[in-house]
Known about the structure:
Elements lengths: L25 H11 L4 E5 L2 E4 H17 L8 E5 L5 H11 L3 E4 L6 H11 L3 E5 L3 H7 L7 E5 L9 H13 L10 E3 H8 L14 E7 L7 E6 H15 L8 E4 L6 H13 L3 E4 L6 H8 L6 E4 L1 H8 L14 E4 L6 H11 L3 E6 L6 E4 L13 E2 L4 E5 L12 E6 L6 E2 L3 H7 E2 L3 E10 L5 E6 L4 E3 L2 E3 L1 H8 L5 E11 L3 E10 L6 H11 L8 E4 L13 H13 L1
Parallel strand pairs: 1-11, 3-4, 3-5, 4-8, 5-6, 6-7, 10-11, 10-12, 12-13, 13-14, 26-27
Antiparallel strand pairs: 1-2, 8-9, 9-19, 14-15, 15-16, 17-18, 18-21, 20-21, 21-22, 23-24, 25-26
Helix pairs in contact: 1-2, 2-3, 2-7, 4-5, 8-9, 11-12
Amino acid sequence: MNRHIWLKHYPEGVPAEINPEEYRSLKHMFEESCRKYAAHPAFTSLGRTVSYAEMDELSRRFGAWLQKEAGLAKGDRIAIMMPNLLQYPVAVFGALRAGLTVVNTNPLYTARELEHQLNDSGAKVMLIYEGACATLQEVVGRTPLRKVIVTGIGDMLAFPKGLITNLVVRHVKKMVPAWSLPGAVRFGGVLNKGASLRLDPVDVDPEDVAFLQYTGGTTGVAKGAVLTHRNLVANTIQIVSWGNLGEIDRAVVITALPLYHIFALTSNCLTFVYTGGENVLITNPRDMAAFVAELAKVRFTFITGVNTLFNSLLNTPGFERLDFSGLRVALGGGMAVQAAVSERWRQVTGRDICQGWGLTETSPVATCNRVDELSFTGSIGYPLPSTEISIRDDDGNELPVGQVGEICVRGPQVMRGYWNRPEETDKVMLEGGWLRTGDIGRMDEQGLTYIEDRKKDMILVSGFNVYPNEIEGVVAKMPEVLEVAAVAQDDPRSGEVVALFIVPKDAALTKDQVVAFCKKELTGYKVPRAVYFRDELPKTNVGKILRRELRDELRKKVAA
Length: 560
């Protein structure tokens, strides 16, 4: 395969290569943006906006406290466990300026998951949202944590709004008191103390570890992807170059996906800090009515999301009446964007959803469609600058254009490996720096890559491969269907058959109607043999449907 056939289809002005060491580190990138855009708004949340100058000072205080009061040195790990609040960027950039490694932690983790991550990463300090303190309380004595910093939703809001917000949330959520954690300190106290402390300069290099980003928990023990400063600076510059984002003055990006997830961390937080843009943080995107009300307050330029988030917005009253005149790009990732959702999004907003693709292990963006084209291609797009895509067979041999195989990636955004797991690293890294992604796909003559599916999600019907994305894309066209997931169901005759789980818009929808619709669109072996109706589907915190849980449920039924 000519690995560079995609370059002739690049948008005008997009370079084939970027300089991944334009900045030595995220620390240097952030500090430069704070100087260049000091008066510009950086982050907005719950009615408060923080400028780049304020972010510079607040993060300096936090970093100084970590050095002087917590005794952390370059390379030590700090875990951060919270939803999208202003405290998150303050803490992240403060930690990076102190030369530390950030361990992003899901606030919905169970005690078992949290204990594993804290012990595996060796985090010495944790910043935690007080709503998650009950989970930490169960395991804190079995972890290496030396200090715990606790924060409430209202901690960075003005008085008395912040105090009232914290009191109301604590009462409604029946939270464990922060003082029940040994040695816990409040976030506000850390910033107050840090005001009188000096942040010692730290020489942060491109190969120093910026983040341990945990992944793979749905298929086994969660592994920490080692993402260096070079990885994340490179991916930030790649995204900016691909979208010509540096040409946009004071962009506003809607950040509804959690910042602890690699998609929002890079595509929203880091990318728009680089360009001096403003991140509007949505703390609770599941409250769709409140989400739409927040969108009505700003003339936003960008929004990122997964298919289910876009679909939910489209089905929320009032969304269609918003002002979309400033919208440049709606970037979809994390799961396949369905053509039906993109088409309806275009009808409402005037723009299709631009689909990109990547993994935690690629920091995360590896490919993206052109942002200057309105048509929805159904592909995951072209490799970003300085990125190569290769389609390979199970033995690692490259396949010709058009053939289906495993998508492999090489570029400066590819992780160093998995934290303290060389054997797991060896399973995914091929000679020459190629990463095996576990995604099955093909590349066409233009250099566009198409996802067929994950290896583990593929359904094998009488020896024929069936890809759930295709089935879901067809069923999603039915106006009576809100959400759909296709999974394998064991069958004594054909080995496996296609089973559908559907959240209907119309309660009168029947299995026969779904099957009849599929028969018009799909060849016989792809037509679902079982259809189950649900009020909701299991999802990750970023809205990605968990097919594994649905498969496991079916297998338990068969066993019973």
